[in-house]
Structure formats: C-alpha cells, structure tokens
Amino acid sequence: MVFGIFKKKDPVCGMKEEKGKGIYFGGNWFCSDNCKDKFEKDKPNKPSCCH
Ligand SMILES: [Zn+2]
After folding, report:
1. Rounded to an integer, what distance in angstroms lies between the CA atom of residue 25 and that of residue 12?
2. 51 CA distance to ligand 1 middle (Å)
3. 11 with 28: CB under 8 angstroms?
4. How close is the Cα of 50 to the center of ligand 1, in Å?
5. What is the pLDDT of residue 39?
6. What are 21-46's pLDDT values in tens digits?
7. pLDDT score for 22
8. What is residue 42's three-state secondary structure?
C-alpha cells in the first residue's frame, strides 16, 4: 500500500483521513464541512510571516 504515505490528517481536529469520507480542499483533508469552514475562517487570522 503505497498510498499509506500520503495519508492526510485533518489540520483542524487532527482526525486521520478516512477513505471515502470527508472533504479534500486546498491540499488538505477535512473530516467534515465544519472543519473545512473553521480552517478557512482561521486562515486570515493566522500570522503567516512577519507580525
Ligand atoms: Zn475534523
């Protein structure tokens, strides 16, 4: 199983990728719309480089 290496993790809640479930967005995997929305909302608030 080569694909094991590419297993993603939900960056919001930390849940491991489950095949056939969740949403792929922006190179990340999210377990649900909720987490995707959270990630999207959090993005602009995060200091990306120089703050
Ligand atoms: Zn999640």
Report:
1. 13
2. 28
3. yes
4. 28
5. 93
6. 999 998 899 999 999 999 999 866 65
7. 95
8. helix
Q: How many A from CA of 22 to the centre of ligand 1?
A: 8
CA-to-CA distance for 44 and 28, rounded, in angstroms?
Answer: 17
Residue 4 has a CB neighbour count (10 Å cut-off) of 6
Residue 49 alpha carbon to ligand 1 centre in Å:
25
Model confidence, pTM: 0.69
* Widest pairwise Cα distance in the chain: 42
Contacts of 23 (CB under 8 A, 6+ apart): 29, 30, 32, 33, 36
